[in-house]
Specification:
Structural class: alpha/beta
Shape: globular
Distance between the termini: 40 Å
Number of strands: 5
Radius of gyration: 15 Å
Helix content: 40-55%
Oligomer: single chain
Strand content: 15-25%
Largest sheet: 5 strands, parallel
Number of helices: 4
Length: about 150
């Protein structure tokens, strides 16, 4: 047995938000590499399709589901798609986050503040509640952005 074998996730179904690039893409690829079926979620369709394709081409199982994590109906669709496509949901990784504006908070326009809070805090909360409704056991992992 190799050390990596201790971390096998065979039988797991993982949703990874913000999975089109960066840390989320790495998480999706790594979960798949150790046996999890992965639902790759983000707003940028082309990016998540590329990640899912790369996972499938490498012998894993992945599905791309376009998702705006600030939309509760989209989160429900994401969870339901995981269950319908892969038979369950065991792991939910809230990774989506950020802010397009890089400035001190004293200069941040109020409407951008609300968008940033919705993406970096409220969406994580809603993601946890959504995952909880679909999971019997497993893990919820929350990753924060500096914008959070």
């Amino acid at each position: 047995m190799t050390p990596l074998d201790r971390f096998r996730l065979d039988g797991h179904v993982a949703v990874v938000t913000g999975a089109g690039r960066g840390i989320g893409e790495g998480i999706a690829r790594d979960f798949a590499a150790v046996g999890a079926k992965v639902v790759v979620a983000a707003r940028r369709v082309e990016e998540i399709e590329d990640v899912a394709r790369a996972i499938n081409d490498a012998g894993g199982e992945a599905l791309a589901v376009p998702t705006d994590v600030t939309d509760q109906k989209a989160l429900e669709n994401l969870a339901q798609t995981a269950v319908d496509s892969f038979g369950g949901l065991t792991d939910w990784i809230n990774n989506a986050g950020g802010s397009p504006l890089r400035m001190p908070s004293r200069d941040l326009p109020r409407d951008e503040w609300h968008r940033t809070v919705a993406l970096n805090l409220t969406a994580v909360y809603e993601g946890c509640l959504t995952a909880e409704r679909y999971m019997d056991s497993g893990s919820i992992i929350n990753i924060t952005s500096g914008a959070g």
